[in-house]
Write a structure and sequence with these properties.
The chain is α/β, with parallel strands linked by helices. It is built from six helices and six strands.
Length: about 250
């Protein structure tokens, strides 16, 4: 006769909880991969439609994690106009959060190097930072966790070339819980990020904040997915600062 092992009730609860977590993680991973497969196929079609022969859109980070911010590479023999059209077409794909070119994927001219550092690229640089890391907040709070300090330092440095431009900071949440509470918290978190960037040298007058609560979930994600809790940046208008005689040493 086989012996029947009776487990303590607390152990049964623990085993059940572990199983739920494992199933949730597997489901989340499958959802992410399915989303990436869809945007990959649509990006490939967009590249082909724009004549981007040889250009590849990679929707994975260096660590192999799926990301909505693809890296474009290849197509070295294509002209800049074609490469620009391809990048815009991929960025327009539903679910894509922003694109950037792989560094060193072709020789650059001095003019291009200057443009790469200019205000036209600061949004792309910030999106690249936030594609693999997240600005973290204390639970149900707008207080930014200390562990996000280094990331905010890098975000501030990436945005500084946009001095004089209007930069929008948008807070988003998932749909879990009270909608009004989520809306208020998303606004407060956007404000907290703005204040942190001002402390790091960005002009407050250039920063605009807004909270959308759960009204704008990430394309392809369930509205309840925690990945919808996010901060996004966008350059509303690009107006590089022009030095005045006061700013310029020895100006006449």
């Amino acid at each position: 006769m086989n012996a029947i092992i009776s487990l303590p009730s607390w152990l049964k609860v623990l085993i059940g909880a572990v199983c739920v977590v494992v199933i949730a993680l597997i489901g989340s991973e499958m959802t992410s991969e399915n989303t990436i497969q869809r945007v990959q196929a649509e990006a490939d079609a967009a590249i082909a439609a724009e004549g981007g022969t040889g250009i590849v859109a990679d929707f994975h980070t260096d660590q192999g994690w799926p990301t909505r911010h693809p890296e474009l590479s290849g197509g070295e023999n294509l002209d800049d106009d074609t490469r620009g059209r391809v990048a815009r077409a991929v960025a327009a794909v539903r679910g894509v959060g922003g694109v950037h070119w792989a560094k060193g994927d072709r020789p650059r001219t001095e003019v291009e190097d200057v443009a790469e550092k200019g205000p036209y690229h600061c949004q792309r640089d910030v999106e690249a930072l936030l594609s693999v890391r997240v600005i973290r907040f204390a639970q149900s709070s707008a207080r930014i966790e200390e562990s996000s300090g280094r990331l905010l330092d890098e975000v501030a440095e990436a945005l500084k070339p946009c001095g004089g431009s209007i930069i929008a900071i948008a807070g988003h949440s998932d749909s879990v819980g009270d909608a009004q509470v989520n809306l208020r918290l998303s606004r407060e978190r956007a404000d907290a990020v703005r204040d942190a960037l001002v402390e790091r040298g960005l002009p407050r007058a250039s920063l605009r904040t807004e909270g959308y609560g759960s009204a704008r979930p990430v394309e392809g994600l369930d509205p309840t997915d925690p990945a919808n809790r996010r901060i996004e940046f966008s350059v509303i208008s690009i107006a590089p600062q022009v030095p005045t005689p006061v700013d310029t040493p020895d100006a006449g």
